[in-house]
Amino acid sequence: MSGLSSRDYEKMLDLAVSVMDCRNAGSSWSMVAEELVRALRGTTCVFSRSHRFVQHTIQLGDVQIWTPWYSGPVPDDAPERARMGSHPLVRHYAETGDSTPLTISDILEERTWQSSEAFSLLRETSGATRHIALPLHELDSVKRGFVLGRSGIDFTAREREYVVRLQPLLTRVDAHLRELERWRTRVADPDDRAEDLRLTPREVTVLSLLTEGITAETMGRRLGISPRTVHRHLENLYRKLGTADRLSTVLRAQKLGLLPEGGNRPRRISGAGPASRA
Questions:
Q1: What is the pTM of this model?
Q2: Within this chain, do residues 213 and 135 fall inside the same structural domain, yes or no?
Q3: How far is CA 72 from the centre of its chain?
Q4: Final residue of a domain: which of 112, 137, 170?
Q5: Given a cut of 90, is residue 263 above it in pLDDT?
Q6: Nearby residues of 149 by Cβ (< 8 Å), 6 or more positions away
Q7: Distance CA 124, CA 138 (A)
Q8: Residue 141, SS3 per DSSP
Q9: In a domain, 61, yes or no
């Protein structure tokens, strides 16, 4: 029987909706970090957007941290980065490719953990002695995920279940934000153009994928949503842009500056008729 309440699930869904509606990736991950801190009674939350394991060394990319005294990016020359690279959970995921949410106690005996250098350093800098990780799916050998820390008792079965249930939602959020960022790199003043036409961030990600000539099913897998939801977003795009199919939508979007000029045009989907034009 689940130890989570209906309110717990409501909070998860509210979080996912809020993040999907947000146009700023930094703000989106801040919402997630704040929810993790609230739900798990944490004191420190770290998000590594990319880290690789190369020749027994963890190479950290963009790292964000949330604490009571500081929230923001961790500079490349900050000593905290080296400490994060030696974190047992970070090393576990980098070395094994595991994607299961775990706590320190899942991979180390209590005595081993408390006698480690990482334990002393983390307790000194953040006061956190208990840690739980929420990894996101790996992309091109790059790993991303959250590590939340706190002092006191270890994480309960209910708290572990909360993280397990939240993971699929955050994986979808991650896919959505990555596609949104990719679109922004291709378009000038992207957010202003989208807001003028009242396009939601989710509709923008679907619009961006239209140029690849992929099916609604493939779009859904890329974004972590169902084909039916993709179709709904496509219908909204047709209505807002005054179009009726994929090709006219891409051409109209290019004319409005929502997609780069000269980009790929969607290939015809085999068997697509008026009722299945997406």
A1: 0.80
A2: no
A3: 17
A4: 170
A5: no
A6: 42, 43, 44, 45, 46, 122, 126, 128, 129, 130, 131
A7: 31
A8: coil
A9: yes
